[in-house]
């Protein structure tokens, strides 16, 4: 059984990113263990706290370390990833030399209510994952545009074709992740 951590870059209630993540996770094997990891309450990363990390840092790092693979879904904020997502990446990659991300396969999806589909945030996130030594699935590229027209008011993807496509990507990711999970 593979343990999949899901990190949603949007901390908004009824997030479209969460809806996309759920649609991807629907394609994972039935025995997959899926954990949605909350990043909303992490204090901002501060290197001064490395020697005596707050409990939120420690718990988050332990949760990340316990996962085999990750699904990241992000909106785009000012042509980049949301601050909460960047903070989460930083918290679990520190103290220096003690990153818990390394070697864990990742899938990246971005979404936007616009036609640009969060493409710049997608690539910013991929660049960070390269540095964090996370092998990232390359295809299919998951840029989901106009999510407000594909989801209901709770963020759940209701467009059948989109849901099918995202579940298919989840299935492909499980096959990709199996190459790396011991």
From TrEMBL:
Record's GO cellular component terms: cytosol
A molecular function (GO) term: oxidoreductase activity
Domain NADPH-dependent FMN reductase-like: start-end pairs: 3-146
Gene3D superfamilies: 3.40.50.360
Pfam families from the UniProt entry: FMN_red (PF03358)
InterPro entries with a match to the protein in the record: Flavoprotein-like_sf, FMN_Rdtase-like_dom, NAD(P)H-dep_reductase
PANTHER family, alphabetized: CHROMATE REDUCTASE, NAD(P)H-DEPENDENT FMN REDUCTASE LOT6
The name this protein goes by in its record: NAD(P)H-dependent oxidoreductase
């Amino acid at each position: 059984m593979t343990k999949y951590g899901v990190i949603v870059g949007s901390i908004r209630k009824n997030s479209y990113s969460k809806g996309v993540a759920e649609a991807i996770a629907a394609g994972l094997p039935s025995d997959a263990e899926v954990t949605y990891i909350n990043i909303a309450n992490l204090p901002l990363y501060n290197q001064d706290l490395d020697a005596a990390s707050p409990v939120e840092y420690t718990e988050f790092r332990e949760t990340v370390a316990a996962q085999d693979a990750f699904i990241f879904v992000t909106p785009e904020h000012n042509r980049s990833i949301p601050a909460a997502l960047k903070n989460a990446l930083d918290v679990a990659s520190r103290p220096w030399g003690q990153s818990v991300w390394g070697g864990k396969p990742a899938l990246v999806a971005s979404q936007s209510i616009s036609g640009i589909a969060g493409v710049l945030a997608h690539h910013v996130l991929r660049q960070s994952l390269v540095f964090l030594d996370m092998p990232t699935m390359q295809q299919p590229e998951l840029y989901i545009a106009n999510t407000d027209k594909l989801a209901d008011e709770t963020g759940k993807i209701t467009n059948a074709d989109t849901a099918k496509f995202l579940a298919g990507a989840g299935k492909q990711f499980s096959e990709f992740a199996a190459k790396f999970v011991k």
